[in-house]
Amino acid sequence: MLLIIIGIVFSYLLGSIPTAYIFGRVLKGVDIRQFGSGNVGATNALRLLGKGPGITVLILDIIKGFIPVFLFGNFISARTNFIDNETMRLILGISCVCGHNWTVFLQFRGGKGIATTLGVLIGLSAVSSSLRLILGLLILTWLVVFLIARIVSMASVIGAAALPVYAIIFRQTPVLIFFTILLSAFVIYRHKSNLKRILAGQEKRLF
């Protein structure tokens, strides 16, 4: 149990590393929260810092989600059987996403969790073949919506809403379905201001 608690804390702290904020400070000496959407995430970094830094932030935020689920998960599962492997990995993943969304390093003002959630799902897919199809469909859903609307937030919200639907359709475990609902709710909640702008026709297109 102690090992799992340590894993949860480390997962939260890893997720809390504000990648976009750090890049903004290092590359331009600015607080990314004072520009654009004010979000500490890859899309705002892309707009403010350019393609190279924006893509780097995206990749690092994905890796943040992957490490707790896959690496921490493998380490803990080899040393304890207190809870089942799937539930333990899901808890670590949720902790990491919470760290990204509400980072302790920026007064609990963080990103919106899209890239980190993707990293969590990649980590889960690495140890569960049944999730690979769902992950592929999720990415396809995001791409189709984005290519049509060219609005990142719209693609992210629709993709998030589709996640638990795909989990139910492909008959995942009740625990996994519950956690996909939780992850989806996090994404949609964090995009509430974007949803208001979308409904008002004021949300910016990426290009």
Count of DSSP H/I helices: 10
Mean pLDDT: 93
Structural class computed from helices and strand pairing? mainly alpha
Q: Assess the beta-strand content as a share of residues.
A: under 5%
Q: How many domains in all? A: 1
User: Spans with pLDDT under 50 lasting ≥5 residues?
Assistant: none
Structure overview:
It is a single chain. The longest helix is centred in the first third of the chain and has 27 residues, at 51-77. It contains 10 helices and no strands. Helices cover 74% and strands 0% of the residues. The protein has helices spanning 2-16, 19-28, 42-49, 51-77, 85-101, 114-127, 130-149, 152-169, 174-190, 192-199. The chain has one domain (2-199). Helix 3 packs antiparallel against helix 4 and helix 4 (51-77) packs antiparallel against helix 5 (85-101). With 207 residues, the protein is mainly alpha-helical.
Produce a short descriptive summary.
The chain contains ten helices and no strands. With about 210 residues, the protein is mostly helical. The model has no long low-confidence stretch (mean pLDDT about 95).
SSE layout and pairing:
Elements: H1 2-16, H2 19-28, H3 42-49, H4 51-77, H5 85-101, H6 114-127, H7 130-149, H8 152-169, H9 174-190, H10 192-199
